[in-house]
Amino acid sequence: QSTGSLTLTVPAGQSVAAATSYTFSFALTNPTAAQSLASGNPTIAASGGVTFSAAAMTGDSTTVLGLPGASAGDAAPLTVLSASFAQRAIGQSTPYPGATNTITVTLSSNTALAQA
Predict the structure, then answer these.
(1) Which 8-state DSSP code applies to residue 101?
(2) CB within 8 A of 75, min separation 6: which ones?
C-alpha cells in the first residue's frame, strides 16, 4: 500500500487543549524497496468542527542513525534503506606455500539477518 490515512477521533464530552502537545505512535510495515522521505511526503489535516488544510510534516533531516553506512536524514519518517553490507573485507594470515592459512571474513550489515 503506497498511501493510507489514520483517523483520530475526539470522544464525545472530551476536548483537545490548545497549545498542548499530544504524542502518539503506530506501527506500519516498510516497503521491500528503498525510498527516501521525498517519495513519502507525510501530511496532516483536520476536519470536523474546526478544519485545517493538509500541511506537510517536517522530518528529521539531521540525525544519523547508529547503523553502519547511515547518513544524515536516514531518521526521517518513511525513509527506507536498502539492505547492504556496509563493511565487507577478507584477508589471510599467510601467503606462503604449505603454511596453515587462516582466512578471516569481516561483515557488517545495516539490517538484521534472519535464518531463511
Answers:
(1) -
(2) 60, 63, 64, 65
The SS3 of residue 47 is coil
Q: Model pTM?
A: 0.53
Q: Are residues 80 and 30 in contact, defined by beta-carbon separation less than 8 angstroms?
A: yes
29-32 long-range contacts, CB within 8 A, separation 24+: 30/80, 31/80
Question: Tell me, what's the pLDDT at 38?
Answer: 59
State the pLDDT at residue 105.
Answer: 94
φ, ψ (nearest 5 deg) of residue 45:
-150, 165
Write the pLDDT tens digit of every residue in 95-113. 999 999 999 999 888 888 8
Burial class (CB in 10 A: 0-12, 13-18, 19+), 62: exposed
Identify the three-state secondary structure at position 58: coil
